[in-house]
Amino acid sequence: MKKWKCSVCGYAFESGDQPEKCPACGAAAAKLSASGQSADAGREAVQKVQQEAEDQSATTDGDAAEKKWRCTVCNYIHTGPEPPDPCPVCGADSSYFVEVTEGEEDDESTTGQQQEKQPQPVSSGGSAEEKQKSQAEQDDTSSKKPDKSDTKKKEAKPFGALGALVMHFHLHPISVHIPNGVLPVAGLFLLLAMLIGYTPLETASFFNFIVVLLAMPLVFATGFIAWQRKFNGALTSLFKTKLICTGVVTGSVALLVIYRLVDPTVALTEGSGRWVYLILVGVALVAATIAGSLGGRLVFRK
Length: 302
Description:
The chain is mainly alpha-helical and 302 residues long. It is built from nine helices and six strands, in the order βββαβββαααααααα.
C-alpha cells in the first residue's frame, strides 16, 4: 500500500493503485502526491496539466481568430472568428461575406488538373469497329465539356462594351475629379469676390459652377456603370450615401446657376439672397467632400 497526500486539503491516506481523486475533497489525481514525492512536484504536475489546457484553448482561439472573410461587394478581407457587420468599407451586412479558404484562388487550376488526370479508356486490341466506337465515345464526352467562352457569355457584365470602356479607362474617377476640383475653386472665387467686391472673380465663380453642372450627368452615368459592374449594384449604406450626395451636388449647383441667371448681382448685393447663395455653395461642397471620401474608402479599403 502506498501513502498518498492531497496538496489541496492535506488529507493523507493509503491506496495500492493511483487514486482518481482525493476521497476527502474530490481533488483531481494530479493534486495527489505519493509517499516520497515532494509537494513541489505535485504542484508542478498540477501546473503542467493547467498549462496544457491553456495551450489547447489558446490554439483553438488562435485558429478561430485566423479565419478570413471576404466581402463579395468590395472584396475587403476581414480576419476574425466571425465576419463584420457591417463591412467597414462598403457597409454591406455580414450576409455578403464568404469565408476565404486556403488555395481558394487555385480552385480553377486544380479542377483543370483533375480533369486532365481523369483516366482515359485504353484500347486492348479488338476490331477496328470497336476502336472507332471507343474513339467516338471519347469525342462525344469531350464535346460535352463546358466551353469557357460560353461561360463568359453567360457571365456578361452590365452595359457590355460601353461598361468595359468605362472601367478600362477609369472614366468615373476622371469625371468625378471635375466637381471635386472645380467646386472648391468656385467657392473660393465667390468668397473673395464677396469680401473685396471684385466682379470678375464672381463671374469666374459662376462659369465654374456651369462647368460642374455640365459634368454631373457624366459623373452619375459613369458612377452608376462602375457600381453595377464592379459592385454588382449592391445597395449598401455607402452607395446610398454616395447616390444622395450626387443628387445634392447636382441640385444645389443647378439652383446656384439658375439663381445667378435670374439675379446676376445676387452674390455682390447686400441682402438675404447672397447668404442663401453662399449656403448653397457650402451644401454642394460638403456633399462633394462626403462622396469623395466614401469613394476613397472603396479604393483604399480603409
